[in-house]
Amino acid sequence: MKERNIGTLPVNGNNLCCNFVNTVYAWRGKNLHEYLGNYEDFINWCRKLNAGDEVLLKPLLAKAKKLPEKAETALKEIKKIRLLLYNFISAVAAKEQDAILTLLPQVNKLLDKAAAHTTVQFRVNNFTLTLNADPEDLLSPVWIVLQSLNELLLIEDIDRIKECPRCGWVFIDRTKNATRRWCAPEECGSADKMKRYNAKKK
Questions:
Q1: Average pLDDT, whole number, for the chain?
Q2: CA 22 to CA 16: how far, in whole Å?
Q3: pTM of the predicted protein model
Q4: Of 182, 137, 177, 138, nearest to 157 (Cα)?
């Protein structure tokens, strides 16, 4: 069994928000592994996914080491947000309208908080949405993640938002005919084929 850590964590969600949700293995079934064991793991994940630059991430990590209790509180909030996003994206993938409408008010509150940390800038005939990253706010990278949730819901074809039936990781299906089923065919796909093969033998 391969070692699971931020360094070996697959990045196959095709969206920052999906990859954030996929920092638990797995949402379904056994072998639950928490990739965000501490706040430093979260910062290392941000570095891996470019969710913030060193001007933001380095001071955040320094503050977390200086104030471990605040870092632990922030990490609990980060995981709480991650769980909400998983439940919401899972509902979207399954087209469960009642669940979507139930969770949407909580999601909108998060998006409102993220919007409060952003400004619109105009450069060379283009508008861009920029995060006002605060190196004192241990939740700052989360607002970057939530910007990608906006992109996921408003720009993507929601029929391409999917959840792996084996592990529960979420992803955007970018295949031509939207036929991708697994988060990773070589892992979850192969495991499912082997399970069905063994079932037939029995």
A1: 89
A2: 10
A3: 0.89
A4: 177
